[in-house]
Amino acid sequence: MIRILAVPLVALAGAGYAAWTVAQGSQPAPVAQPVAPPARAPFPAYIAGAGLVEAQDENVAVASPLSRVVEEVHVKVGDEVARGAPLFRLEGRDLAAEREVRRAAVLAARSRLDRLLASPRAEEIPPAEARVKEAEAALADARRQVELWEKVADARAVTAEDLARKRYAAEAAEARLAEARAALALLRAGAWKPDVDIARAELAAAEAQAKAVETELDRLTVRAPSDGTILKLNVRAGEFAPAGAVASPLVLFGALRRFHVRVDVDENDAWRFQPSARAVAFVRGNRELRADLSFARLEPYVLPKRSLTGESTERVDTRVLQVIYGFDRNALPVFVGQQMDVFIEAKPLGERK
């Protein structure tokens, strides 16, 4: 009897369990409660947008002008620095060696110019004058020889060839005297102006090359673009710093005298926006923390919205008008990069601007 009733009882129990499982699965899932109650708009009609806190002069991504190894880092996160203060320095031993070469070239070029400007030396004049006197004496002797040979009474004692040779010797002595006098005059005249101009141009070129190396050496020290605070530091001594823009900035810098919040206004609500309208920002996670915003500026270009995760490549399929508001740094306990809920007062949808 028990064996006969066992199978129907097991089947009945399975059917009951199946019915109970289906009943439990068909119940609606409980609504998840938010971690914190959302903020409520303080205006009857408003434009809502997500805002991102940033520095007053925007967040500056400081990059390296040259691709080199970092030799020294002068700051740390949270440091307040003045305009022109060094942030980090790149290794540049090759440029230091090149600087010495350029300095030597400048000294050589300046020495050549000084030598031209100082010519003639006082010691060079007496030897030149002595060569002139020597040439004068040689010419006088040659002319005297010609006169003596021409006065020989017996024509048979002097051949025409010997007399011509004496006359040629006198002409050569006269030419050597002219050469010595010209050399003396050239020496007394000093440096030729075109030679001086060339020497000055060579000196200027050498100085320009030395200055170019000095400029490159100065670029090895990356400095603060303005007064501000180090928000993030992604560079350390010994690391390689690539030149140009990188995915993660080497140094994130900003002026924190006052906070700005960049609000994304949907393009469908852009026509309702008015710069003179009131705006309020709430801290996410605590709707009791709020601050009145003051309009700073807007960027009059509607662009594809970027998700506020810090990655510029992530986008959603909408376009937004970015409006920048400001508020006192001490008004709310927020940090740069934090998201806020922003409400901007607007006219009702049925009214035109």
Largest sheet: 6 strands, antiparallel, barrel
Low-confidence stretches: 309-314
Count of DSSP H/I helices: 5
Q: What is the mean predicted local confidence, pLDDT?
A: 86
Work out the helicity level.
Answer: 25-40%
β content, as a range?
Answer: 25-35%
* Termini separation: 88 Å
Question: How many strands in all?
Answer: 14
Number of domains: 3
Oligomeric organization of the protein chains: single chain
Structural class: alpha+beta
Note down, in words, how this protein is organized.
With 353 residues, this protein is α+β, with helices and mostly antiparallel strands. It folds into 3 domains: 46-58 and 254-345, Elongation Factor Tu (Ef-tu), domain 3 (Beta Barrel); 60-91 and 220-253, RNA polymerase II/Efflux pump adaptor protein, barrel-sandwich hybrid domain (OB fold (Dihydrolipoamide Acetyltransferase, E2P), Beta Barrel), CATH 2.40.50; 97-215, no CATH class. The protein is 38% helix and 27% strand. The protein has 5 helices and 14 strands. It has helices at 2-25, 93-118, 125-150, 160-189, 193-219, and strands at 46-54, 60-62, 68-73, 80-81, 86-90, 221-223, 228-233, 240-241, 251-254, 259-266, 279-283, 286-306, 315-327, 339-345. It has a 6-stranded antiparallel beta barrel. A 4-stranded antiparallel beta sheet has the order 2-9-7-4, with no helix packed on it. Strand 11 and strand 12 form a beta hairpin. The chain is rod-shaped, with a radius of gyration of 47 Å.
Write the layout of secondary structure elements.
Elements: H1 2-25, E1 46-54, E2 60-62, E3 68-73, E4 80-81, E5 86-90, H2 93-118, H3 125-150, H4 160-189, H5 193-219, E6 221-223, E7 228-233, E8 240-241, E9 251-254, E10 259-266, E11 279-283, E12 286-306, E13 315-327, E14 339-345
Antiparallel strand pairs: 1-10, 1-14, 2-9, 3-5, 3-8, 4-7, 5-6, 7-9, 10-13, 11-12, 11-14, 12-13
Helix pairs in contact: 2-5, 3-4
